[in-house]
Write a structure and sequence with these properties.
The structure is a single chain. The chain is an alpha/beta fold. It is 25% helix and 19% strand. It binds arginine. Arginine binds at residues 35-36, 39, 79, 82, 84-85, 104, 138, 183, 185-186, 273-275, 279. GO terms for molecular function: arginine deiminase activity. Keywords: Hydrolase.
């Protein structure tokens, strides 16, 4: 498949900005319940393999110059490796998660404790307990001009307003309509949060939200079915590198045509839980320097 790339998009220099990520080892990873269509508790999970795959992702981030902090895994919480769902940090202001399902509820407690203790490391300025259900970066994609927010399966619309109130950012609500793409981060990837470049899979969104995306992001990379089903949009972009699962060949080629460096990670075991690269990665976004020193 050939990809036509507008020249103004193609010729941009791609610059990495060092990031700070929070991740949780898959020490207790398992599929013991099914809360999304990808999970089948009858299939065996190879935890050692999951650990090796997750470790390769951590190593890739560190090799690219990013800082990775680790959250202690808790026995009995088999989805805790999916750290993106635990909290959302924007400008040093943190909104804790409130999970939609009882099976994951206790993860929010572990994340809250980590942010309460270590927020000082990133100039944390506020730590808010959520009122409405929100699964954090599973449904919040933070760009420089706007936060994109998914709803329809997990995160409640009321949580979009909570994040807007906490951060003062515009929050743009997008409706997810396909249960296989139950979180925003399996339907849309942030390639560069400084220049607001994204990739997404249109059929995951309602017609109205597709129109909003087309209008706001005319230069977006569009993923095809095979990309989306390979979890290709569950990717992490740092402005230059895009860390993404193997198997999203069309998306990878489209990104490379725009000058991104694709770092492919095999996440086959984690996919048994319905998650991949981005699901494993919570980004800690410190206060912007122009806002002055945090308290
Ligand atoms: N099994 C987890 C769940 O269904 C997977 C979460 C994936 N995380 C994500 N950010 N999409 O909740």
């Amino acid at each position: 498949m050939t990809t036509t790339v507008p020249t103004h998009v193609q010729q941009q220099p791609r610059r990495v900005r060092p990031r700070h990520y929070l991740m949780c080892p898959p020490t207790w990873f398992d599929v013991t319940y099914a809360i999304n269509p990808w999970m089948d508790p009858r299939l065996p999970v190879d935890r050692e393999r999951a650990y090796a795959q997750w470790s390769a992702l951590v190593a890739a981030y560190r090799a690219a110059g990013h800082r990775v902090d680790l959250l202690d895994p808790v026995p009995g919480l088999p989805d805790m490796v999916f750290a993106a769902n635990g909290a959302t940090v924007v400008d040093g202001r943190t909104l804790g998660a409130r999970f939609a399902t009882s099976q994951r509820a206790a993860e929010a407690v572990a994340h809250r404790a980590w942010h309460a203790r270590f927020g000082v490391l990133y100039g944390g300025r506020a730590l808010a307990d959520p009122v409405a259900v929100n699964e954090a970066e599973g449904d919040f994609a933070v760009l420089s001009s706007v936060v994109l927010a998914g709803y329809g399966f997990r995160t409640n619309l009321a949580a979009h307003a909570e994040l807007a109130a906490l951060t003062g950012r515009e929050v743009l609500s997008l409706e997810l309509v396909d249960p296989r793409f139950y979180h925003l981060d399996v339907a849309l990837a942030v390639l560069d949060s400084d220049t607001d470049q994204v990739a997404y899979y249109p059929p995951a969104f309602s017609a109205r939200s597709q129109a909003v995306l087309a209008d706001r992001f005319p230069d977006a990379v569009l993923a095809d079915d095979a990309d989306a089903y390979a979890f290709g949009l569950n990717a992490v972009g740092d402005g230059r590198n895009v860390f993404l699962p193997v198997g999203a060949g069309h998306l990878r080629d489209a990104l490379e045509a725009r000058g991104y460096v694709c770092v492919e990670i095999d996440t086959s075991e984690l996919l048994l839980g319905g998650g991949s690269v981005k699901c494993c990665t919570q980004e800690i976004r410190p206060a912007r320097s122009e806002e002055g020193d945090p308290r």
